[in-house]
Amino acid sequence: MSLGTILLHPGYCIPIVHYACIAQAAHVLFEALDNYQKQSYRSRTKIATANGILQLTIPIVHNRGSERHQLTFDVVLENKFHWQRDHWRSLKIAYQTSPYFEYYEDAFEPLYTTTYTKLIDFNLACHECIMECLQLEKEITYTEEYFRDPKPPITNLRHLITSKKEPDYKLPKYHQLFHDKHGYLPNLSILDLLFNEGPNALSYLEQVDLSPVFR
User: Fold this and answer.
1) How far apart, in whole angstroms, are the C-alpha atoms of residue 7 and residue 90?
2) Which residue in 67, 75, 136, 141 is deepest, having the highest Cβ count within 10 Å?
3) Are strands 25-30 and 3-8 parallel, antiparallel or unpaired?
4) DSSP state of 118
5) Contact assessment for residue 87 and residue 184, using Cβ atoms and an 8 Å cutoff
6) In the prediction, which pLDDT does 214 show?
7) Nearest C-alpha neighbor of 155 from the set 98, 115, 211, 74
């Protein structure tokens, strides 16, 4: 399936299906004017560990009563917690024996040792790093107004940001480090694909059948 312009929410090392859409799109439009919502991939990601799926969640500063009206681009990180240190430690423990973790380690470590003030700045830094590791160049712009119901030529994929009750996107299997213990775990963070498949990750993304995304 060939995609033109897709509309997505930027998130925290977002799942594989997001990057399959990005890889197969001509142009990516990131939503810049949405209200922040908890329990989504805006501030969380899922990785595979020896004990199963681990959810890494970024703490944010909660504004009293105004959170539902707070733009995602304005959300401030709660840096009094050592979440970057903890997330990087979790990633190293989970993936240090994977085939390509050492290959990408130097690219990702600065994300977890640099202080960011806003959630969006950290998420976009992660995205830029991931795109570079994938060796994927894609034109990306940001919305200048909020479209409740985007019309063609824009394909609205903002629903992918939810982390609740995800449908089965029928993603093809690839080698995962703990497959013998937990079976295949679909649609984890793009980091899982990168650390396990390395340079083959882009070819994988380009071949994903995206039909289930539109059902």
Assistant:
1) 31
2) 75
3) parallel
4) B
5) no
6) 82
7) 211
Distance (Å, whole) CA 96 – CA 81: 24
Measured distance CA(11)–CA(34) in Å, rounded: 12
Residues 6 or more apart whose Cβ sits within 8 Å of residue 166:
187
pLDDT in tens, 26-68: 999 999 999 999 889 999 999 999 999 999 999 999 876 555 5
Whether the pTM exceeds 0.85: the reply is: yes
Exposure of 118 in the CB half-sphere (CA atoms within 13 A): 11
Quick one: average pLDDT of 94-120?
98
Is 49 in a helix, a strand, or coil? strand
| Peptide bond between residue 153 and the one before it cis (omega within 30 degrees of 0) | yes
- Joined tokens for residue 204: 């994988």
Within a 10 A sphere around the Cβ of 33, how many other Cβ atoms? 13
- The DSSP secondary-structure symbol of 51 reads T
Domain boundaries, the chain: 3-206
CA dist 67 and 69 (Å) reads: 5
